[in-house]
Amino acid sequence: MERLARGVVLGFVAGMALLTSGCATPEQQIAVASQIRTFDDKFRPFKEYSTGTIKSGNVLGVGAKQLVGRVDRSTGALTTIVQFEIVYESDNKRHYEHARNARAEALQFTKVPRNAKCQPRKGCIYDELFLVVVPEAELRAAASTGYHIKAFARNGPDVVVNIPKELIVNLFAQIDKDRTRTAPA
Q1: Is 90 exposed, middle or buried (0-12, 13-18, 19+ CB in 10 A)?
Q2: What does DSSP assign to residue 102?
Q3: Residue 36 phi, psi (nearest 5)
Q4: Model-level pTM?
Q5: CB atoms within 10 A of CB 87
Q6: Which DSSP string do the residues of 12-30 spell out, in sequence order?
């Protein structure tokens, strides 16, 4: 009975992923997510560019990924970030702790504190969010193929996050266009 309840909860979580993605195909999600948004808040030390969110679900849980670029107002330096959120049902939290690129090189990893929703004898639904800083040159080099990172969990399965090439190309195109417009003549 307990196994059935977990299956129902996981089915519900996966169903919510489909509803929130509007039952869009992966290609449709990529097309929508490739539209770059710019946030220019004078109270922040950077100008931020972001793709839309791509959502998907599998046996590991429901994931949402987004690519973000932040241009420092003082130096003009660009920081590129992969933001990934995963929601899953389990008896214990996985605790994602670090990430590596496809060459097994460590990437800067930041966990964002999140809450869990638990019910007695039914397990918990966990929500983990993390940010992975990817070197700009490395991400630019992946514009023709897409970029892949693997996040490692202390207690549970690891997760591979794939960033489609379209998101990379469009993010850099918008950032480069804005930099060209604001560059001194």
Answers
A1: middle
A2: T
A3: -85, 135
A4: 0.82
A5: 20
A6: HHHHHHHHHTTT--HHHHH
Largest CA distance in the chain: 70
Please tell me the total count of domains within the chain: 1
Residue 6's alpha-carbon distances to 78, 88, 89, 138, in angstroms, are 43, 11, 7, 40
pLDDT in tens, 54-98: 998 988 899 999 999 999 999 999 999 999 999 999 988 999 999
Helix, strand, coil percentages for the chain (3-state, nearest 5): 30, 45, 30
- Give me 60's structure tokens: 């590991």
Q: Residue 70 sits in which domain range?
A: 2-182
For 46, the token pair is 């950077």
State whether residue 28 is helix, strand or coil: helix
Assess contact for 96 and 65: CB atoms under 8 A: no
Token pair of 154, please?
A: 């202390």
Pair 87, 125: CB distance under 8 Å: yes
- Are 30 and 169 in contact by the 8 Å Cβ rule? The answer is no
User: What separation in angstroms does the CA of 60 have from each of 153, 156, 157?
Assistant: 12, 9, 7
Contact 133, 80 (CB under 8 A): yes
State both tokens at 123.
């397990």
- Whether the pLDDT of residue 44 is over 70: the answer is yes
